[in-house]
Amino acid sequence: MIHAQVLAMLFVCATATHTKELSEHHQTILGPSSGNSCCGDSTEKGSCHQQTCPTPLDIEASLSEDHHHLNIWPNDMKEPIVETKQGKLKGILASVLGKPVQVYFGIPYAEPPLHQLRFRKPVPAKPWNGTLDATRKKHSCPQQLYPEIFDIETGLSEDCLYLNVWTTSTTKPTKSVIVWIHGGGFSFGSSYQSWYNGSLLATMHDVVVVTINYRIGIFGFLNAGVPEAPGNMGLLDQNLALKWVRENIRAFGGNPSRVTIFGESAGSFSVHSHIISPLSRGLFQRAFLMSGTYHSFGLLDTVFESAVRGSKVAAKLNCTGTLRDLTSHPDIVLECLRTKSTKAIFEAVKDVSGSKMVSFLPSYPNEFFPIRPSFALEARSVRRRGRHGQHHAVGRQRNFVIAARQTFLGRRSEGRARRGPEASSSENGSPVDKRRV
Predict the structure, then answer these.
(1) How far is it, in rounded angstroms, from Cα 260 to Cα 437?
(2) Where in the chain is the domain with CATH 3.40.50.1820?
(3) Which of 41, 210, 366, 411 has its CA 20 to 30 A from that of 323?
(4) CATH architecture of 4-299+365-409
(5) What is the pTM of this model?
(6) pLDDT, tens only, 154-178
């Protein structure tokens, strides 16, 4: 078990107590280079202090991009093979801190949401014959690219519903599982950002790490109030990914009864969503929220608000007419939207949204959120749910990492030392569950 406070510090200072070993490992992969500022090997009261290291620790270069940046074991060692309920997967056997770690990229958990599946609920991935190659990263979901904010390594496509797994051993299904949900205002981001590499966490703490893609923007959150566009498709994608974890994580050495979901920013809102939604009950046991809850500010729409915004986008694409929009004739308008290219839809969204970076958001009421999320929290106490097998931890936003890369790599941002979360109160002042998560 990992204590909530320890879990938080793990993300912020994952490399703090292993600087010397990592520096030596760094030299074996990248070779020596000049000194630079990095996270030192000392901690005090959960704080990670900045200091100048003799050798710079550029984990992003050594652990990210693709498997060529990992220290791959000799060719005479077999590539790892696991068998899921959908079929066999071939992964990568890499070395991190001198220890073996198995890496599986681009595992499909849903059918590609293309053509008639655009805007619909996700459909579980079909079984395949033979062994699927899980050694390469797949596409990220369509979005407006901001390289200075979101360092996305792959191309973009609506065929993007994939997840990734890191594990040190598949012998026994006893490891705790941590599932990361990326942030980005429900409009940006990907599991294939350079700092979302689970190798270090899996190796240092002997857990199974899972990162997931989910639909964002109009493709993930347009709500027309009909099954053809029910809204919250991105959250339903996450829900389906969690179901995949429940059904398949044993093959990777994970225990489906010890699953923790965690995320930052919109990823934290997503975690809060699964705590609230009746559709996600039983899919995880613990949750860790970093900088975002439905008690803070509103990344939330009503069905009507989403449909009106979608109608404006449809009008730009000549999919509406007199007395015909998503509120009055959703079937006709959606059928038209499905004939448009990804690029054309994005250009229309940009025209409608203007300077706003965030466009389409989670919405209610619907199957995922039968009532407004804040009302759901009041109606069913989180503490009461905790007694039935779900534990939650929330921390002050000012104490959490500014850049999500620190979560996985312990990197510094803007030369400022970061503190770990104070496990004493949430952002709105309510008590934090200090039980083990």
Answers:
(1) 7
(2) 4-299+365-409
(3) 366
(4) 3-Layer(aba) Sandwich (3.40)
(5) 0.76
(6) 889 999 999 999 999 998 999 999 9
